[in-house]
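Deviation from plan, reported transparently: NAP complex.
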Amino acid sequence: MSPRIAIIGAGFGGLCMAIQLERAGIRSYTIFEKGAGVGGTWRDNTYPGAGCDIPSHLYSFSFERYSSWTRRYPGQPEILGYLEGCADSYGLRPRIRLNTEVVSAAFDEASGRWRVRTASANGDGDGDANGDGEKNEDEVFDVVVSAMGQLNRPYLPDIPGMSSFAGAAFHSARWDHSQDLTGRRVAVIGNGSSAAQFVPKVAEVAAHLDVFQRTANWVVPKPDAVFGPRMRAALHRMPLLRRAYREWLYRYGENTLYPALAGGWSADLVRRRALEHLHAQVPDPELRARLTPGYPLGCKRVVIDSGFYPALTRPDVDVVTDPITRIVPEGVRTVAGLREADVIVYATGFRTSEFLAPVRITGRGGRGLAEEWREGAEAYLGIAVPRFPNLFLLYGPNTNLGHNSIVFMIECQVRYIMGCLPHLAARGPMEVRPEAMATWRRSLERAMGRMVWQAGCASWYKNEAGRVTNNWPGTASLYRRVTGAPRPDAFHFAR
Ligand code: NAP
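Because the crystal trials were delayed, the predicted structure below was used instead.
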């Protein structure tokens, strides 16, 4: 009998897991999705100019290559359409429960199963636990796969006076489309990859735009290109061409971008490329100086964009580097005075080091995952955690990349989990051994030593204690090798 599998999240990870289960003829799974549609981050981030700065011919499933991408870096609607198309063509929809949030998952040692509690917004009143129209339900599963992503919970800063602002304020990942920014004074707090994408669009319509920059970012050009009908037809009809193009993108990430983050041959080359880009696009030396980062390239996520700098040089856009002291009803106060605003956009990123935090997960011995991870999230291969049998993570701790496609990493993880299913079906719940976890931790620490992320900058790759909990320090190819097939001796089995 197939194991019953709960998948949390219907973004790239959750859909990939479900597709591989379908392909293996396993239909005993349910995807729980707290949002109203599939797509994860590509459903949530609808800000103007939203798109992916990794080419879509690589940032897509290897088994569902899509030859109709209209450009090298398509926008959010096209990527969301791709994911919706995957959900349809693989027949996943009947097993996706939208508007249903997993609130807790507890492992029951006696039965060797997970009890998953959900809350659905559209409850009919039955089982209404809290009197607010929310319906709670408990279901039992053999396996839980978390596919919650690393960038799904917006982070709002703690700036004094935020609630006193008289105008509209929202986070970039919760864009308020009811606000027409035409002719208004807009303040953008933050200058990461999200801000870089929407600032040029907002600058086109706003009366004035202030971009509040706390730390300058490294920016490299985004060589976008339109894929016209002829190119698309060629990619469609010639699988070899498609494969070669994808392979080239992958190899470029592995052989040129990865060494730039690992103190390798290309570090200086990419740095020079970024400085040339800055010089070419920002003629004013004073502004250029403010936009020049004071830490090594790659320490924070590099911004890949060709429209950000030109937007910052517009006469109606100011880059404000004076530290913010508080938000007041009229706008943003800095050490240098008040900057008036009608609208504030918080482009302040995500709560990245908390991973599965919103879900209360309890493993063997009643131990909570949050408690287990008090010193920082960690997982064997980024996938399995000691004391949490039959719990598997997609895009878990130390599996984010700064140089290649995260979809590739997710596929490695899904392949690995698929490889675990026959083992746990035959021998009962499987739990990674603490010794395997310790060996994994040591090898991560060793590899981390050469990576640029440690080089004295603050970034979302690290937790509060400064430990890099999010990124994978090797190449993507190495990750594929180490996740090639589960090693039974790394696990303890119930039977
Ligand atoms: P982010 O890179 O984490 O940037 C957050 C920004 O907010 C930073 O500039 C940060 O300044 C600033 N900030 C935070 N708290 C602040 C405070 N109290 N006062 C002033 N400034 C504050 O967030 P993001 O731009 O949303 O991007 C997050 C990640 O999502 C990216 O790194 C990327 O991996 C992913 N993403 C990818 C794409 C893509 O095309 N693939 C597009 C968008 C996002 P400091 O730097 O000083 O901390």
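The domain at 162-223+249-346 is CATH 3.50.50.60 (FAD/NAD(P)-binding domain). We consider this an acceptable substitute for the interim report.
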